[in-house]
Amino acid sequence: MSDIAERLNSIKSTLPEGVELVAVSKFHPVAVLREAYNAGQRVFGESRVQELVDKIPEMPDDTRWHFIGHLQTNKLKYLIGNVSLIESVDSLRLLEMIDDLSFRKGVITRVLMQLHVAAEETKFGFTPAELIDWFATRGFESLKATHICGLMGMATNTDDDERISSDFRTVAETRKRIIEVAPDLRGFDILSMGMSDDYQAAIAEGSTHVRIGSAIFGQRVY
């Protein structure tokens, strides 16, 4: 068994039933992704559009791709129809463009709304209040070809375990509030929270998808 397979299986053994592992494969070559695939991994996360597009034809057809990075609108056309989930919708303008392009292509695009709960100003996303208000005012009803499947969030980059747990708790509580203000939502059940260093804390707060890269693949190859 390869080192990657061993690390992958070790991480999967720590995940409760119902928590899905997204193997963050950005900056890693296809040969490395294939090792993970051969060990049973099917869901991979990428954050650069060109890198993702280049990898798709090199991997088996049943590979499921999640886009997890900040998405520039001029690159959007390369993703629609090619990814299983866009996790990083961080503005209404981006959501509207995803919906318009998906409608014109005749596909349904699954997305997550990205919350900004961390202390760093550099991170993208909506505030909890912005998202709750948008759902309360039924903004999602105008979507024609987009299914909002839940929320994505990142915790503050800190050694303060309580702050990390608090950030994840805020994401989970925001999802609950959204369901309260829009109880007719269907399939709004994903909480994508937690990475290599903090995924256990994320799971404790209700994460359904964890995005783990370095703990599987080692340090990135830039």
Could you explain the architecture of this structure?
There is one protein chain. This protein is an alpha/beta fold. The chain has one domain (3-217): Alpha-Beta Barrel (TIM Barrel), CATH 3.20.20.10. Helices cover 36% and strands 18% of the residues. The protein is built from 8 helices and 8 strands. The chain has helices at residues 3-12, 30-38, 49-55, 92-105, 128-136, 161-181, 199-204, 214-217, and strands at residues 20-24, 43-46, 64-67, 85-89, 109-115, 146-153, 190-193, 209-212. The protein has an 8-stranded parallel sheet with strand order 7-6-5-4-3-2-1-8. α2 links the parallel β1 and β2 (43-46). α5 packs parallel to α6. The longest helix has 21 residues, at 161-181. The chain starts with a helix and ends in a 5-residue tail after the last helix.
Summarize the SSE layout with pairings.
Elements: H1 3-12, E1 20-24, H2 30-38, E2 43-46, H3 49-55, E3 64-67, E4 85-89, H4 92-105, E5 109-115, H5 128-136, E6 146-153, H6 161-181, E7 190-193, H7 199-204, E8 209-212, H8 214-217
Parallel strand pairs: 1-2, 1-8, 2-3, 3-4, 4-5, 5-6, 6-7
